[in-house]
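Listing S7. Sequence submitted for prediction.
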Amino acid sequence: MTLSMYQASVPVFLRALTNLSHVLKKGEAHTSARSVSEDVILQTRLIPDMLPLARQVQIATDMAKNGVARLAGAELLKFEDNETTFEQLQARIERAIDYIKTFKPEQVDGSETRQVTIKTRNGDQTFEGDAYLLHFVLPNLFFHCTTAYAILRVAGADLGKSDFIGKA
């Protein structure tokens, strides 16, 4: 059986964002139970030169929604990156999930050789679709989801591996 570009992207993106939403809910519950300011937790970093929790969530959603759009050759859905509460971050994740769900297999399949150029802080990077998905989008998506999990775990939220991985 061959794995299609759609199968390797859309269901993986949806699961990662669904699990990120779950992790955030547990982080929010911990924050509330401990009477900690949302802003304190959302601006928490693992170390000073890493981005805070809120930005980790923003980048994770961008990776998923922009990843599928670029593979499909579609217009990118822009988000403002102005979330300051758990509720707003949850809404962002939900908007990203809803957008990703609009893509059909026929839009993404066959994108293995589609040229994808992205702007990075190091200049433009160009990939073929399969390399873009496997070597850029997926590692970045999981890096930022993992970092969000780690920030909340270090803050004391009751999280475990099954929260991050989710249900099969």
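Caption to Listing S7: primary sequence and predicted structure tokens for the chain studied. The radius of gyration is 16 Å. The first strand starts at residue 115 and ends at 120.
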